[in-house]
Amino acid sequence: MNSLSSFDSLPLSPPLLENLSGLGYHEPTPIQAAALPLILEGKDVLGQAKTGSGKTAAFGLGLLQGLNPDVLETQALVICPVRELAEQVAAEIRRLARNIPNIKLVTLCGGMPGRPQEVSMRAGAHIVVGTPGRIAKHIRKELLQVSAVRTLVLDEADRLLDMGFAEEVMEIVKALPRNRQTLLFSATFPEEIRTLSRKLQKNPESVIVDTTLAPGIVEEREVYSKAQDKLRTLSRILRQEMPESALVFCATRQGCRDVAGALNTEGFSVATLHGEMEQRDRTDALIRLANRSVCILVATDVAARGLDIEDLPLVIHFDPANDPEIHLHRTGRTGRAGRKGRAYALVERRAPGVLSPEDLKPRPGSPPQPAMVSFLMNGGKKDKIRPGDIVGAMVNEAGLNAEDLGKIHVSDTYTVIAFRNGVQRKVQKWAAAGRIKGKRLSPMTGPSLF
Asked: What is the pTM of this model?
């Protein structure tokens, strides 16, 4: 990691350095120390750091240093997933730029009146900060000219993808000059982020700080259980762990149905995934687990490969795999991105190190319920429905905060939207009369959904 200990050693302009001192920014944070020298060299950066780490100042100082204030063209573009973040980023960049005369910054966000934004863009701006849908709209209307953009920033890129903004981001990027600097910051590095980086960046420097992104730590345990007692043992494991999200692997489709039925009777939030299901139903089950609108997915090995659920803390081999490679792929669904995970296997043998059911300590209380609720909307890409339309309607018409929204999955013909569990009444009230581009919101089926 870069050993930068002072902003004074960086090639920043005197107005920027003087302002940093006035703001009380004396020592760079780890993300600033690692990323800012690379940014100032003009390199593409793929950065990982948590919220509050100082990453906004890192890319903000970089893009301000590269601006030509005498030329009123959009030279820097910052894309954020939600309006609240865009406004925070814009406010911080303005603070950093207060000693530089005549810097003009415009925010372009959904959920705000469009007319004032159009007037501002016609007057010109050096920096534009906004959400993907509104930025793309201004580019399409030729109100935002991006031919002079030298720096593109994607902030909280994982959230951009979670909310389904990949298409809007790519639409924006296609309009930008190829010869530009691209800075991509994300709290996590799932494969989708790495794929996006490969599409947008040129030989990026990876900067990973303020995070536990290290090889995952998976604790594996075996529990002895007779065949006739396996459902009871499974229940004891789940009641000890009380997971918000878990995968239970079974050998057969009927086994999945039996286990899911037993867990559902006990009050667990359960979905199934197996090869006999229609592809639409299988996709919905995976979406619900990823959305956190179901806690437990009971699956055959069809789910062992290619399933990437962020922060899955628990895997249980109800029926142990016969093939060591399959066991490895199953277990590998947990402990990802440096997080801790735990895997249990139910075995019919006693041996040193194998737990007995009595070693498990079930906790009192009811099983955890989903943190999110998923809704199905009839209408998708073919109806020109975009994530920005959904976010705008939910915030402005249903009265939700951006933090109430989870992942948004837009398919060709339908859309699945995740909301925080607890705001259903607001959505129900709105959905009774509200529409998005003529399409009505309707609930997905399932025990944890209304």
From this structure: 0.60
